[in-house]
Design a protein that fits this description.
Residues 1-21 form the signal peptide. The chain is of the alpha+beta class. The chain folds into 2 domains: 1-23 and 54-105, no CATH class; 36-52 and 107-155, OB fold (Dihydrolipoamide Acetyltransferase, E2P). The protein has helices at residues 2-19, 59-73, 79-104; strands spanning 38-52, 107-116, 121-127, 138-144, 147-152. It has a 5-stranded antiparallel β-sheet, with no helix packed on it. The model has no long low-confidence stretch (mean pLDDT 74).
């Protein structure tokens, strides 16, 4: 049982650390530092709040299933009954672990519709930033590799 408690603690710490990962436009990834980025001028057409669904990498389900199986097995009673209980607890743990992972990695974001100088329109979803964008704001679209972020244009 002590092993199961330790495993739960390790999983909890991993989930908390995963939730701390940021996709904020205010945070630049280390790999993007000192790289040339493409800049495009645009004007904001609209901004709306959206929720980016959490990830389901399978880690939460795997860990939840293992913890559930270990906790459910218990080792008491008839061997076959204990095994069945362990399997059922493992399935329940996997479902719970998957839900915990998905919920803990959800993120509030904004969908920004912009119009480029050439007339093209684009939609960009990014995490909420300290900088508030509104319709009519002149912005620049910064593209580094396959990552895009929107920020107010310098005055």
């Amino acid at each position: 049982m002590k092993k199961a408690i330790r495993l739960v603690l390790v999983v909890s710490i991993a989930v908390l650390l995963g939730a701390c990962a940021s996709s904020s436009p205010d945070v630049i990834q280390r790999g993007d530092a000192q790289r040339m980025a493409k800049i495009e001028d645009a004007v904001v057409l609209s901004v709306r709040t959206v929720t980016v669904d959490g990830s389901q990498s399978g880690v939460g389900a795997t860990v939840g299933g293992v913890v559930g199986a270990i906790g459910g097995y218990g080792g008491s009673g008839v061997q076959r009954e204990a095994q069945v209980l362990g399997v059922l607890a493992g399935v329940a743990g996997a479902a719970a672990g998957n839900a915990i992972e998905r919920f803990s990695t959800r993120e509030e974001a904004v969908e920004i519709l912009v119009q480029l100088k050439g007339g093209e329109r684009r939609a960009i979803v990014q995490a909420k930033a300290a900088e508030k964008l509104e319709a009519g704001d002149p912005v620049i679209i910064v593209t580094t590799g396959s990552k895009v972020r929107v920020t107010k244009a310098p005055k």
